[in-house]
Every structure is written in C-alpha cells, then in structure tokens.
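I can't quite decide. Please look over this sequence plus structure tokens:

:::
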Amino acid sequence: MSNLRVFLCRSLAVVGFCALLVYPAVARAVAVDRNANGMSDIWELVYGASGLAPDGDADGDGASNLQEAIAGTDPFDPASKPLIGSAGIAGTNVTINVNCALGKQYELQSIQPFNSGGWTNWITEATAIARSGSIVTLSAPAGLTTKFYRVAISDVDTDGDGVNDWEEYQVGLDPMKPSSNGQVDANGNPLGDYAYATAQLAVQDLVTISATDATANQPDPGQSAINLGILTVTRGGFPLNDIMVNLGLAVPGPGVAVEGLDHAALPRSLFFPRWDEFPDDHSHPACEHQPDQPGGGVSEGVNRVRLLAEPG
C-alpha cells in the first residue's frame, strides 16, 4: 500500500546546512488500516484518535494528524510531535538527534540543490530503525559542498507479516518474527501476526460475561462457603485503552439469588486499564483481576475480571 513519509529539517548557523519545513512525500509504507484512512488502526486505538481526519491538526502543533500517525506521536499533545532534538557539526560529520518511537525508521537525507536535478535528487546518507531508547542519532560526512539536510520518518515491516514494527511493539508482538503471537490456525500451523492482529481488532473492546463455574453450594449457618460460583467478564481485543464496564443485577423474583444473602456483594462497575497500567494489586473483596497474556507481551489482548459469587 502507499502512504506518506514525514520529513523534518532544522537550520544551523553553519555554511552548507540549511533548513526546510516539515512536509510529506509519497513512499511505501505498511500499516493495519482497515478503514483505509491512511492512519494505523492501532495508532488510533493507542491515542483514542479514531475520529480524526488525516489532514487535520488536533493539537495545533503544526504536524497533521496523518504526520503524527506516521511518526507514532500523540495527536492531542502539542509537545509530542515529529521533532529534531539537536543538530550540529561534530568533527567532520553532520550529527542529528531525533526524538524517536520504537519501530520507526529514520533517514538522514541530503541534496545539493544547485546541481542538476534541483530539489528532486535527495540522497540517503544514514538510516536507523529505533529499537530502544527515545533518541536516534544520525551522522554523515559534512564535506565542503553546500548541502541541505532533512530527516525522513517512515514505517518498516522487518518480518514482512503485514504489521509494521511500531504496531508490533505496541501490541507486544515481535517485529522480527512473522508468527510471534503464540496461536495456531485451524490446521495447527502458526498463526500469522497480521491475521492475529486483525482478528483481535474485530472484537476490540467487546465485553462478554460467562459463568465460569455456574454452581455454588449454600453452606450451613455459621459455616464458610466451600464451593464458589464464578462469573467471568472478558474484554476482547488489545488492551490499548482504558474502558469502564457497568454491571447490574437481575430483577428480583422467584429463582433469583439475593445479594448479601445468597451471594457476596458484587461491584457495580469494573475498570479495564490499558496493558501498561495494570496495577500491582488486583485485589477486590468480590473480584479478581487477571490479565490474560499467554505467549508474549500483550499477545492475547484480553483482561479478565472474575466475580466470586459467595453464598451467605
């Protein structure tokens, strides 16, 4: 598929290194983009940006929503945008530090606009894919010829599975392995990460409730319960955003258990945090929070909260 690449430039008071503004150019890219708006569906979930127009600028920072999607930055935070942190001449090299997002590719490009070809013959001098940290450093020989430099930001798909590296980092997959989710298909073969990711997104934030243990025995007066019924509330998809689930009891009537008499009091709402906000203490008088992450990272993308129905 085609997408846009973001270019960043910054001026220096050094002959031969001048400035350009941020602007887009066509380049190959890949992203999980089921609504075909040019912005990653996973980026939209991470930042709650599903309703944004690609050509808008939600935070007014000068970078369009589409450019922020490509750079992996927050479209609602003007301090989070594609940005060159510092640039200068170090010895015989031009060195540029760029604020980075894991999985994005950063290219230092140069051009000699006074040669034949004008502003069309950009040359890539250095390339790096962010694998750790928050800063990427790019360097290239300075030389004696006047040049203009820019930094291009784009997506890459190292393992060729259809999910770009930035997206894989966000959902806990391995950008070096095309089947890193720990699941198998109907034939028992490793499930590709693209099929896995799209299946998870199809049930994103779908909440279900089931009776994990539908039987509970009423203990004798003064005795502790020995058989607890369990209800399980499950949040589907990737836990990339916070959601609140409201619960209600059945209308009182024949055959309906009475809260506080037939079972323990149950919470009226359950909070499902995004995966990087899971609390250390999941205890609740009547519930047990159990993040479900078989395989690696956030591979299952499901939080479970178990309600312990305790006879009184």
About this structure: The first strand starts at residue 2 and ends at 8. The helical segments are 41-47, 65-71, 165-171, 193-202.
